[in-house]
Amino acid sequence: xxxxxxxxxxxxxxxxxxxxxxxxxxxxxxxxxxxxxxxxxxxxxxxxxxxxxxxxxxxxxxxxxxxxxxxxxxxxxxxxxxxxxxxxxxxxxxxxxxxxxxxxxxxxxxxxxxxxxxxxxxxxxxxxxxxxxxxxxxxxxxxxxxxxxxxxxxxxxxxxxxxxxxxxxxxxxxxxxxxxxxxxxxxxxxxxxxxxxxxxxxxxxxxxxxxxxxxxxxxxxxxxxxxxxxxxxxxxxxxxxxxxxxxxxxxxxxxxxxxxx
Amino acid sequence: xxxxxxxxxxxxxxxxxxxxxxxxxxxxxxxxxxxxxxxxxxxxxxxxxxxxxxxxxxxxxxxxxxxxxxxxxxxxxxxxxxxxxxxxxxxxxxxxxxxxxxxxxxxxxxxxxxxxxxxxxxxxxxxxxxxxxxxxxxxxxxxxxxxxxxxxxxxxxxxxxxxxxxxxxxxxxxxxxxxxxxxxxxxxxxxxxxxxxxxxxxxxxxxxxxxxxxxxxxxxxxxxxxxxxxxxxxxxxxxxxxxxxxxxxxxxxxxxxxxxx
Lengths: 261, 261
Known about the structure:
The structure is a homodimer.
Chain A: E1 6-10, H1 16-25, E2 31-35, H2 47-62, E3 68-71, H3 74-87, E4 92-93, H4 96-106, E5 111-116, H5 118-123, H6 125-133, E6 138-143, H7 147-152, H8 159-173, E7 179-182, H9 191-197, E8 202-205, H10 206-215, E9 228-232, H11 237-247, E10 253-255
Parallel strand pairs in A: 1-2, 1-3, 2-9, 3-4, 5-6, 5-7, 7-8, 9-10
Helix pairs in contact in A: 1-10, 2-3, 4-6, 4-10
């Protein structure tokens, strides 16, 4: 039987948290990961640009004969998922719906907080998905644009990061939330700091739930050690460092051009 | 006589500090500014990608019949200036050389600090330019990758920003510098915070010196109120807000495609 890889893309390095969660569950599968590091970040850009880039990334992955595509970027999932599903001839899975499902499962008080990039929050995608599951839940959102740069600087357990988290999250804490969705694939790297600031609040990270969702599309037909190919549109030292931190092991990284002319 | 505009590009909004400095001196001139907001930031990307983007930006400006091009981005100036000069049929001015000239004029102790993006610092462009003017000067560099996101978040006079500046600059202060080059066009927006941290150190901002350099290529032939066109590759709310903060007045902003296929 022909082995076809699972394709995963993100604006940069953060989506590797999703790759890791899927691979931990399905180590026999092959993976092609693409990080659009030449155009990262997406979270401060406009809807039109986010959709354009997402389509180009998905088309790039299709060239590798992927059997399904996981959009590991919350910003892309928020704006481009429907278009990707329409345009592509393989199943497409986003991270927003799985994150929303996990949050609804977790909440007891019915008050859920969502943090993410400016674009993700503005799209209202999490709110829509959560309310489509349970319309009685209250959703409170807050963009946290400095979290990604702080993570990329490597200040994961730092006084400055703690202060920034306090500032961003104090408003949400005032809303009596018991569940907080980490609506950006980078944010699980700040789980310790966010957990300290949001004492007694359940942190929901889409990666795990996305891995479960991905499983529904896998037939269990492949056996043997899966291969991982990691592609980027810009080769930076920074990517390799953070990739290793997330994956817990080191993979070769290849540079490819994403220009679809 | 045909009026031809001055072309200016930057990776995003920061280069408007250079546009403002040139326009303050030469208000009769017409300007076309391009901010590559769809691919910002450049400072964390690789040399190859920075050169590719810089060439595309310059070619875009050439379509507007510009008479000269000012590379208002320190990262682009550090890596792409020689190539741009070779490839284009109009004069090209960068911001690194003018900044270096101003710093050498300012120093008394002969110890100069340079702050900038990771890419700018890694290129060593400021060090090379400063030493080519005076080989006896000591140059100490430090990348400050969180400054741009902090500025874009609008935290210009903030306790967090102050702490980050303290952290980044303490090493340089230990080197007994008397002059600090703000080697990124965003950084003049942090002059107050950096000035407090770097008490008694002269801050050098390339914009003013670049405006003087630009004047050498102008014939003084144009009269009347100059026009300003501001183009971006991605239209974001954020751009307009910071643009107004820098320019002190509001200009219409147009979205254009930078893809050169």
